[in-house]
C-alpha cells in the first residue's frame, strides 16, 4: 500500500514540475514574440535612429560613423596588395594580385596566426611588433604570380575590428578594446601609427593605405564582385551593418560608406525578456549593445542556458538537484545550440549527448529534449526576425524598400559571419522574414548574398582603391 502511495506522490510531484516548467517556457515564448507589426515598428525605429545619428553626434544610439571610404572598388584595380585582418584571438594576412577588369583577382594567398594570450594584455609595441614579424615572414614567401612595380611600395589594407574613431581613410584612434584584449597604452592612439612604427622597426617598406572594420571590408569585397551590393551586414560572434549613403543625406560630408554600429541599437519595440536583462547586467558593458545581445552568436546559447537554469531551479526540470554546470555563463555556445536545434534523429540523440557533454546531464527523456529544441528555435527565430527588421530599416533609409515605376532596381545585401553561414535555420528564417516584410513585388528586387571572407579581401581592395599610385 505504501509503495502505491509513494508512486502516486511521485507522479503528482512530476506533474506539478512539468506544469511549472511549461509555464516558464510559455511565458518566455510569449515575451519573445515577433509578430510582423512589431517588426515593422523595429524597422521604423532603426530608420529614425539612423537619421538622428547622421544629423549630429550624440543624438542617437547608432554612431553612424563616417568611414572615409568614398572610393569603393570598381573592378578596374590592378597590382599587388596586402591585407591584415585583426579582429580577435587570431589574425590573418593576405596578398592579392589584381588583374583589372579582365583578370580580377588573378591570385591570392593567405595565412592565419594565433596571438599568444600574454600579448593580448601586453603593450602596444609588443603586440604590433609580433604582427609585423609575422607579416615580414609572409612577405618573404611572395613568389611567382605576384608583381610589385619597380620602385613601388607595398600597400596594405588594415581590417581592425575594434571600436575606432576614424580620422581619415588611413588613420583612426582606438576607443576601447573588446574580445579579451586589454592594452591600456594603445587606447586613444592612432592604430595605423602604432602598426607603422612596428613595420619600420622590422625594416618593412609598406604603407597602410586603408583602415577599415570587417563590415566595411565586407561591403567593399561584395561591391567588387557585384556592383548591385549597397549594404553589408555581419552576423557572427558580434553584429554590425554598413551601407552606401547618398551625398545629400549626410550633413557631415559627401557620399560615403557609413558604419552604423547597429549592435548598439535599442528601442521600446524590441522584445527584451528577463533573461536578456540578466545577461546585460552580467556583461562588461551594461546597457550597451542591446541589439547585439539579442541577435548575435556570442549570446544566443547563453540565453537558452539561462531559461534552462530557471526551469531547473524553479521547476526541477532536470530532477531534484540543479546541475551545477548549468550556472556557468557562456558554457553553452551557439554552435552547440545550433547542433541541438538542427537535430533530426528520431530520439533527438544529438540533444541528449550535448546535454551530457556540456552540463553533465544524463538520461534525459524525449519530452525534455523536445522542449530544448523548441527553446533553441524560439531564441534563434527571434534573432533572425529582428535581424531582418534591422535590414528593412537600412533599406528604408536608402529608399530601397519600394519599387519605383520604370526603374530597373536590384539591391544586394552582402552578409558575412559564422552565425549566418553555419546556422541554417537562422539564415532561412531571416530571408523568409525579410521577404514577408518587403512583400512579393519588392522582395524580387532585394537579394541577401553570403559574402565569404569579405573582410579580408575587402581590405586589400580598399587599399587598391585608395592607392598612392594614380594608375591603379
Automatic annotation (TrEMBL):
One GO BP annotation is: glucose metabolic process
Kindly state which keywords UniProt assigns to this record, in alphabetical order. Answer: ATP-binding, Glycolysis, Kinase, Nucleotide-binding, Transferase
A GO molecular function annotation here is: glucokinase activity
Q: In which pathway does it act?
A: Carbohydrate metabolism; hexose metabolism; Carbohydrate degradation; glycolysis; D-glyceraldehyde 3-phosphate and glycerone phosphate from D-glucose: step 1/4
Catalyses:
D-fructose + ATP = D-fructose 6-phosphate + ADP + H(+); a D-hexose + ATP = a D-hexose 6-phosphate + ADP + H(+)
Q: What is its EC number?
A: 2.7.1.-
- First-level EC class: transferase
Is rRNA-binding included in the keywords of this UniProt record?
no
The record's Gene Ontology cellular component field reads: cytosol; mitochondrion
Which segments constitute the Hexokinase C-terminal domain? Answer: 231-464
Pinpoint the Hexokinase N-terminal domain residues: 25-224
- Where does the signal sequence lie? none
**Keyword Transferase annotated:** yes
**So what family is this one in?**
Belongs to the hexokinase family.
Q: Under which name does UniProt file this protein?
A: Phosphotransferase
